[in-house]
Amino acid sequence: MYDLSTRQHALRLVEQGRSLNSVSKETGVSRSAIRSWLVRIEPHMPQNLCARCRNDPPSPADAYSYLLGLYLGDGNISENRRGVYALRIACADAYPGLITACEQAILAVHPHNRVCRVQKPGCVAVTSWSKHWPCLFPQHGPGKKHERPIVLEEWQRVVVDAHPWEFIRGLIHSDGCRITNWTTRMVAGERKRYEYPRYFFTNKSDDIRRLFTDTLDAVGVGWTTLARGSAPFNVSVARRDAVALLDARVGPKS
């Protein structure tokens, strides 16, 4: 009664954590049919949609490196009662280009899963459901990221080493910003205003800040630490040559 592509699409929606009722409404397939497919696993359904379960690196690697930066900054993973995980990346409403870039990165890394935008006060939670998000982001765990160790797996280090700018871009797009500072100076008896751009990255996790600064070192971007009170939460990039590098490879959020 239903062709193979319809069955596969319906089962993928269920795998993402959708209810049988919502899947039935979207696909036009009866709930009883979907329920029977869940009991009798389709022989043609791909059983392994996760690269890490196959012991392969995520692909495309550049999209994964960017998404990893977004996740470490403003992402979280939670599990529902069916053992399906939601990856959520919070993106401010002020940056629609960032929301689109995040959505595209998720679809590139895990193309079999639907991505949706959930509006929150002042931001959009770009969300995708899958059983395999903890495979792709093994930093997932109980508690807040800054209260537990955050260490990259060896395969993740290989990806970041190969695509450092994408990782930096993801971190800045999540927990960073580009601002313009200004100062005044007396020149020939006249006070003149001077403006200069700089980048900030702010994160409470010592481990995540270290991942950021280690990657900056690897690509030759100078940086300094600015303390908030007694806590060194802020990484600043202010030297003209360093800002020029970030402008060329990252740029402000849009």
Structure explained in plain terms:
- The protein is α+β, with helices and mostly antiparallel strands and 254 residues long.
- The chain folds into 3 domains: 4-39; 52-148, Endonuclease I-creI (Roll), CATH 3.10.28.10; 174-249, Homing endonucleases (Endonuclease I-creI).
- Helix content is 42%, strand content 25%.
- It is built from 10 helices and 8 strands.
- It has helices at residues 4-15, 20-27, 31-39, 61-74, 96-109, 133-136, 154-162, 164-175, 206-219, 240-249, and strands at residues 75-79, 85-92, 115-120, 123-130, 176-187, 190-202, 224-228, 231-237.
- The strands form 2 sheets. Strands 1-2-4-3 form a 4-stranded antiparallel sheet. A 4-stranded antiparallel sheet has the order 5-6-8-7.
- A hairpin with a 2-residue loop joins strand 7 and strand 8.
- Helix 7 (154-162) crosses helix 8 (164-175) and helix 8 (164-175) crosses helix 9 (206-219).
- Residues 41-48 have low confidence and may be disordered.
